[in-house]
Recover the amino acids of this structure.
């Protein structure tokens, strides 16, 4: 594995890189240093617009810009993009299906020390309820870069979820091919399917190793596009293994686990156990102990995998 | 302005009022009061000011209108029908399940609607985005938006006002329909948004106060907007909610209720007598 990089860093770099090739503007709400849109601003100051601490207005300003045929990227923390400004995203962007790209950073518990008010564990849930919204939660810096270009090329609103924490790079940038709406088969297996997203993908791969030591052959799938979900891949894997574990840095309500459970309950009902934040608020702390405290670990994925296997008929 | 033009604009305004009432009456639902109070402004914008093309509603360089007070869609639809964007007979389908004329404006399905609106406070932000986009691409289109006085209670209006002032959006003109009434009563009792002029001035806007039913004053205000550079313009229009229909004027109850057959016929008779 290469150096650890935060997906927000890759996002800022990608904006600056693709700013050469594509015509778009970037809006931020007084967080450009943290969301990393500041990297873009340094290169293209005339295409970066500070909106101040007014996220609701920023979202609908972006809608107005998009209505004139220009693509806006809009960035703030996930809590304020998908939480505070939910109604503006829903009515201002989602309902008219405008071509706005929301780059939400600082998603999940791995925000760390800032604590519960800034740890957004519900953004996937709120964004999933907006018809026509595409949701991407990349697993590493390579995927984060690729999803920015995919968002530009996709016509319609996109919500991208980036993290603050530097995480391992899983993919080789020179060979990785990102396909919107398609899961990535990380490692095949036959006993249990682990469907993971975001920073939990590398933990799922670690869990596979833990399970291997116990003679269990786990399949690991990376779902970067949570909506539309790659139902075909999830269903085919569930049919093969007969049981599933989901893993996400998000509330177990409404996120990837819910999306997978909904798809499978309608097509091939098998046990689905969910690893995620178990309907609690976060708290301040260093990230490693926080991930331990909330069960966002390879060990917990492995334990849930065994429990899921035990539920198989 | 010259008499012929004034007569023409008054006739269009009257037809917009008739069309809005027809829509609300047909639907047995909708918002007549605030539709009638902006009819004169819509007449002026569509028939004396805005660069728009009914045959090419998505024309890239057109002037834009965002009805931030989206609940008064009946007036917007009636204006669009009057200006040839949509067939007049379609006004009867307003709010019906198989109609493209939604209860609040829907840009995806109605030609001439520049922005989806209805959730109060959002429209002015969208108008800011359109104006900013025009500025950065050196387009010379203008953006007009219409707000309600009750709508000014939404904090987002002031976020947008700050944004427009900060970015010197002199291609943006916001009209405030100051009819003094909101759903629960007079704005002075529910939530007093006055002094409206001083608030916008404090946010860096050029502000003009007019009688929103006087077409000459509307024309002067728009000329003032066009002559102003370096800041957005807010036109605070004193209006009469329900204007033109005697029993609806200044009546809070006509904010969001439809006339019955007898009331509708009386309203049509009063307005037709004006033509």
């Amino acid at each position: 594995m290469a150096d650890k990089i935060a997906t927000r860093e890759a996002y800022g770099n990608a904006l600056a890189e693709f700013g050469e090739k594509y015509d778009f503007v970037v809006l931020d709400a007084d967080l450009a240093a943290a969301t990393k849109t500041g990297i873009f601003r340094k290169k293209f100051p005339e295409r970066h617009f500070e909106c101040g601490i007014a996220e609701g207005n920023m979202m609908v300003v972006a809608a107005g810009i998009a209505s004139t045929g220009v693509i806006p990227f809009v960035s703030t923390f996930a809590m304020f993009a998908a939480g505070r400004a939910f109604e503006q995203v829903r009515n201002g962007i989602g309902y008219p299906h405008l071509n706005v790209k929301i780059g939400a950073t600082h998603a999940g518990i791995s925000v760390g020390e800032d604590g519960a008010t800034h740890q957004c564990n519900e953004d996937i849930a709120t964004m999933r309820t907006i018809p026509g919204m595409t949701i991407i939660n990349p697993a590493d810096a390579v995927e984060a870069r690729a999803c920015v270009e995919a968002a530009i090329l996709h016509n319609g609103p996109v919500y991208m979820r980036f993290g603050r924490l530097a995480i391992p790079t899983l993919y080789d940038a020179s060979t990785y091919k990102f396909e919107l709406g398609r899961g990535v088969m990380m490692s095949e297996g036959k006993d249990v399917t682990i469907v993971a997203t975001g920073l939990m993908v590398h933990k799922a791969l670690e869990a596979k190793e833990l399970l291997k030591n116990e003679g269990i052959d786990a399949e690991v799938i990376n779902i970067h596009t949570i909506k539309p979900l790659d139902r075909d891949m999830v269903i085919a894997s569930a049919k093969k293994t007969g049981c599933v574990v989901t893993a996400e840095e998000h509330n177990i309500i409404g996120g990837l686990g819910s999306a997978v459970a909904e798809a499978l309950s309608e097509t091939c009902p098998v046990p689905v156990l969910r690893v995620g934040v178990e309907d609690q608020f976060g708290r301040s702390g260093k990230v490693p102990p926080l991930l331990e405290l909330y069960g966002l670990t390879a060990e917990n994925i492995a334990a849930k995998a065994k429990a899921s296997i035990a539920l198989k008929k | 302005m010259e008499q012929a033009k004034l007569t023409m604009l008054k006739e269009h305004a009257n037809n917009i009022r008739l069309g809005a009432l027809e829509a609300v009456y047909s639907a047995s639902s909708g918002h007549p009061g605030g539709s009638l109070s902006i009819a004169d402004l819509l007449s002026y914008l569509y028939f004396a000011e805005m660069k728009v093309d009914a045959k090419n509603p998505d024309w890239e360089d057109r002037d834009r209108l965002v009805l931030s007070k989206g609940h008064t869609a009946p007036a917007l639809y009636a204006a669009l029908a009057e200006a040839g964007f949509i067939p007049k007979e379609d006004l009867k389908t307003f709010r019906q399940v198989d109609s493209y004329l939604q209860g609040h404006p829907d840009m995806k399905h109605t030609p001439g609607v520049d922005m989806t609106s209805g959730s109060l406070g959002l429209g002015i932000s969208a108008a800011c985005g359109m104006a900013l986009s025009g500025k950065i691409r050196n387009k010379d289109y203008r953006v007009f938006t219409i707000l309600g006085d009750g709508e000014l209670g939404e904090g987002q209006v002031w976020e947008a006002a700050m944004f427009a002032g900060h970015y010197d959006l002199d291609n943006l003109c916001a009209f405030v329909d100051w009819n003094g009434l909101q759903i629960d009563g007079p704005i002075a009792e529910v939530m007093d948004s006055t002094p409206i002029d001083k608030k916008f001035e404090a946010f860096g806007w050029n502000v003009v106060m007019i009688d929103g039913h006087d077409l000459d004053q509307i024309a002067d205000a728009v000329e003032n907007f066009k002559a102003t550079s370096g800041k957005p313009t807010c036109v605070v229009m004193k209006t009469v909610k329900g204007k033109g229909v005697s029993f609806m004027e200044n009546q809070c109850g006509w904010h969001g209720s439809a006339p019955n057959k007898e009331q509708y016929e009386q309203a049509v008779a009063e307005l037709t007598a004006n033509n």
Summary: Chain A touches chain B at residues 25, 46-47, 49, 51-52, 54, 56-57, 59-70, 72, 87-88, 91-92, 95-97 (CB under 8 Å). Residues 298-311 of chain A form the longest helix (14 residues). The domain at 5-167 of chain A is CATH 3.40.50.970 (Rossmann fold). The radius of gyration of chain A is 19 Å.
